Structures
1.
Amino acid sequence: MNIVHAAAEIHPLVKTGGLADVVAALPPALLRAGADARVIVPGYPAIMRALHAAHAVTEFGPRFNAPQVTLRYGRLEGVAVGAYVIDAPALYDRAGGPYDAADGWAYGDNLQRFALLGYAAAKLGAGADPLWRPDVVHAHDWHAGLAPAYMAADPANTAKSVFTIHNLAYQGNFWEGEFHKLGLPDAFMRPYGGMEFWRQVSFMKAGIVFGRRIGTVSPTYAREITTAEFGCSLDSVLRERAADLRGILNGIDTDLWNPVNDPHCAAAYDRTNLAGKHACKLALQREFGLEERKDALLFGVVTRLSHQKGLDLLLGALPTLLASGAQLVMLGAGDPQLEHGFRSAAQAHASRIGVRIGYDEGLAHRIVAGADSIMVPSRFEPCGLTQLYGLRYGTLPFVRRTGGLADSVDERVGFFCGPPETAIHETIKRAVTLHRDPDRWQTMMVEAMGREHDWSSSAQRYLQLYAE
Ligand code: ADP
Ligand code: GLC
């Protein structure tokens, strides 16, 4: 079976979050499971620079304001499967990020930029590459949400579509007056059975309505998004598609995230020899200028600073954390108010709280390895990868019971700080108390490190879904 994955991010070239990790790791897992998988991504500068041994597959005339679009196929540095790259400089050759310009504002033509991603992926399904044709076009998140729509609009397109929701809160909604730019049938722009969403064009809704199957990244989130509380106003649409909706928990890349030989870390360790973990903790305390204390429970955070992630709850609980004798290191970027809040806390308590604002892959690994507990107090979390990295490194997850956090953590390997938002205080105290008993803590670490979260079983579930 041939599967092409369409997405706006791919690790290690373009990443703003877990989507990039999944898009890099799932296709090779499908290869290992006996399928043939490729990816299709926009030709941002970082992608064009990393593209090697490529040939032009096909060209599309002027499309979506791009005078010329060349679809290339080749190898991307650091990516384990073959890649189609959409070479359209007018849309993708920009200095900023994948979605936003350097000044932080979204590009004014994101509608066109990501319509082209869906369009090109759909074209592959229709046979654009004479040498390779996908049976399934698997589109990820709103950026690729139009692939199922373009496929549904073309009766000659024999491939089947799967649409995975990584985060329902980011929907790709645009002014309804722009619909005509997409070249889709007018009938697609309706509220029932179409992609109209409160007088907007919704790429997310298009994926949900037109995808032959819909997936999301954990069983609990698959249930949650059919409720008004988590449904981001699309819950009724998702309830209608409930029979075709699947929740499949993400795996992690166990080569990239491996305490046995992590090049970013001060020392190596595994569940039979944890000495290296203590060395990683001391190195991390030193890196952040904290008191180098083995006995202090060191919490770690690696995150986007957004409302979703609940870091305001942690900020509010810092007095409790400090009073209980714990320490905290935080790496993150996003909401300026939260950045300011954490920076101020670190200035006021420099020996106990360390904060780095920014994005730093190596430091993310050192925090996951060196902390005793990784905090993910999210209000909602479709899957979450950092708690899975934590488990693998014996860094006990401290999470809220929601989405993929509820599906991957239990009391034998971690701590739940609610749903109730105030529960975080009590849970911090409970974790600190438990940490004073090194034997019990170590038992949990060893249990956590024994949990399997590689991609193999989830890849099998995706293959079953494709087979349907
Ligand atoms: P989300 O995709 O919602 O941000 P996930 O937990 O699925 O959440 O994935 C986040 C990914 O991004 C992880 O690989 C995490 O290590 C990484 N990450 C998040 N923030 C940072 C940061 N500031 N520096 C380095 N890596 C980060
Ligand atoms: C999204 C979600 C996160 C998930 C990731 C990869 O960014 O917020 O929970 O782990 O996608 O599926």
2.
Amino acid sequence: MTLARYACDPALSRGRRYPELPAPTRSDFQRDRDRIVHSTAFRRLVYKTQVFLNHEGDLFRTRLTHSLEVAQLGRSIARTLQLNEDLVEAIALAHDLGHTPYGHAGQDALNACLKTHNPDSAGFEHNLQSLRVVDALEESYPAYNGLNLTFETREGILKHCSKRNARHIESREPGGVAHRFIAQTAEGPGLQQPSLEAQLANLADEIAYNAHDIDDGVRSGLLSLEQLEDVALFSQYRRETLLAYPALQGRRLLFETIRRMLSAQVYDVMDATRLALHHAAPVDVQAVRRHPPLVCFTDAMALQSAALKRFLLQNLYRHAQVVQTTLAAQQVVRDLFEAYMGDPAQMPQAHIDRFDGIDTSQAAGAKPERVVADYIACMTDRFAAKEHERLKGRAVFPLDTPGLT
Ligand code: MG
């Protein structure tokens, strides 16, 4: 397929940190995607929380199925806009690799643990951790740590970054993936955006979770279809569905409504982005990086999407039952952090070996609290719960959560 001139061309990639010969049949971005799919961190996503904990039901999204949905939406849009589908897919599949067990609850708890332990700590942030996984923590290849991905995939993975963390990355990799987060202060408005493929993976993430969290919310019984009538983006497609199929109800009605809602957002992004590209007329990827974001919704869809997000925050993510689970999950993470900091021998030897300088690998020479954070962050929900039970002698999560199927 012909790529647009502003798409990322693997032949023009800024390359890998450790130079490698090209693969005989695959582009560099295909190869990145394949490395991600074969990584240990990717397999762990199947047992990591999206919103509902893994043990709460077999049919809820996990980080893995979420990432697959993001990749599907991203690929569809990329193909239509003549962007690089392989790169979007690689970024989408890797974007959540750095998530802790128990989703944002786990991340917040781990961040607080690091900051409490050392107020000067950089804390914990899942985007940065995703980069750390692919740059340093995966141990699969003989010649280096990490997956040695291309600049473009790594740039897409580092979606957000604090200035402080960006400066740290910049000191090791001048002009590299973190440069855009500090470019503004250093040299005025410079290269501040990532590639279109990275922008697209980011927006596809948002479209995916807004839609599947409605589905999972209703499945769990925490959201009702009546409540969702307050959300314009949902109710208009529910009405449209009922006009076409007046007798439709239950799961089929919900699925068809969400399907139509997803399609509308996908076509909206295609139209709005095409128009933005037409006006900006970037000649290449560097021109894209200098320009404000170009992958976007129309203004009307952006407002509707924001309203849906607010609804989900108020009614699902802050639902009493979700909050209760969140508090328990945070306790697990805090207890694990304290237990390993108090007695590192409770961790496998390979992790202890990463304490200052024993191991000369890139992920080593780390402070003990970072090693502990890396170990906890990589855990699946159920492994964290098992470890907690082993170390504390009690189970935190009841096996059967009433009301959830
Ligand atoms: Mg995500």
3.
Amino acid sequence: MTDRELVAQALRFRENAYAPYSHFAVGAALLGRSGRVYGGVNVENASYPVGICAERAAIARAVADGERDFEALAVVADSPGVCVPCGMCRQMIAELPVGRVILANLRGDLRVMTPAALLPHAFGAAALPGKEPIP
Ligand code: THU
């Protein structure tokens, strides 16, 4: 699947974003090594901090379906530049293998980055001696 095809899927998911407070709809499409695509949207809440970003929603959906290894993650929103994941999402993206992160906007701008470039020096399992994740 091309990067633009994955962004097209993220755009379709974005139509279901629940963003009545910020009016900033975000769509994500996460391509698993199995070939399956998992969608995510931001889901806001009247208690603002309860809301979840599209990227983390997509990861949660994929993990719930048993997928933990990903080829790519596309994120799209109506931002002047490409939509970049927030810090919390960068940390969650860093937890599992993701080949590339495709950042996009409605104007067709595209930027491809690695998770490490998005979050250098990520906090990880190595900082938790004796608590390495059991695969
Ligand atoms: N948001 C995302 O879903 N992903 C991003 O990459 C940036 C921000 C959401 C959170 C909130 O619902 C809205 O966008 C405005 O911050």
4.
Amino acid sequence: MNHQSGAILVLSGPSGAGKSSLISKIIDHIGPTYFSISTTTRPIRDGEINGVHYHFVSVEEFKREIEEEMFLEYAIVHGNYYGTSLSPVKKALKEGKLVIFDIDVQGHDAVQNRLSDITTSVFITTPTLKELKRRLHSRSTDSEEVIEKRVDMAKREVQRISEYDFLVVNDELDKAAEVLISIAQASRMKIPTLQINEFVQSWEAN
Ligand code: ADP
Ligand code: 5GP
């Protein structure tokens, strides 16, 4: 049974686990995709580009977008707002693309509540907490205080791994990327409830 509608792949995991590194590694190997660019109020980091990594906006602008119901989901993470804009996601799904979200556990919850039948979810983490701290320090993008916040959050996030379909331990980047490519390819094959119902009806009628 082929279907034209798209699917969603949610990637969550502690900041510093390697989600962005993995996404750049796999993006050219998984067919037509749309990587959802979130909107955030967090300060831009060195090397980040507005409109590429995030849409960086003020708190006032973010709150206006909430009021105008422009988000599929939004959450406060590490003290800053982050949100997924609904309209580009709808468009990409219509075009049959795999929509990839790099969102936190709260965002995953919200997406599962609204679109569980087309969603596959993956929790990505380092092999150990110690390695997470090492990567956050070696990335050198955040202050010591911010890193501590992220580590505290990571300890809470890993308690929710069981809510995800898959766990990918990003030890060796190439190996983790290979696993993620397989998951991404399979996630496209997920059949929406409506199409299953249609199939059953036609199966019974013929
Ligand atoms: P995230 O997007 O989850 O916050 P990043 O992709 O920014 O994480 O990775 C955090 C840091 O860890 C970066 O400096 C990145 O180069 C490094 N990194 C990512 N994956 C690995 C890995 N498998 N082994 C060692 N370092 C890694
Ligand atoms: P960072 O500041 O390191 O880029 O991201 C911090 C956290 O925010 C990560 O866990 C990331 O997955 C999450 N995040 C990024 N965009 C969104 C979003 O649109 N919605 C939600 N709920 N979380 C997001």
